[in-house]
Amino acid sequence: MADQIEPGGPAAYPSGMEARVAVLEQIASTTAAALERMDRRFDETNALFERRLEALAAEFRAEMRQLRTEMREGFHDLRAEHRADFRWLLGVMLGGFAGMLGVMAHGFHWL
Fold it and tell me: What is the pTM of this model?
């Protein structure tokens, strides 16, 4: 390997090694700064996402409450309409039955 530390000698590193270490230290510091910026952006994006999600959830809950109210009102209207139809139909059936009994009584000379 070409980059092995030379044994002994007056310098701590072999020739050219200090420049390489300086470049690596520079890369490490710029990487740390970039990671810090990315972490801040991620935190901002996460906070923005959570706020938007909470707003959507609140909007959804409000729409569901309104829909439940509308359905309840619609159900009551439909129930009242069915009740009126049932009463009308029951009246027609009882009237028809009474009329039929009247016709039968007349036909059999009961009256």
Answer: 0.48
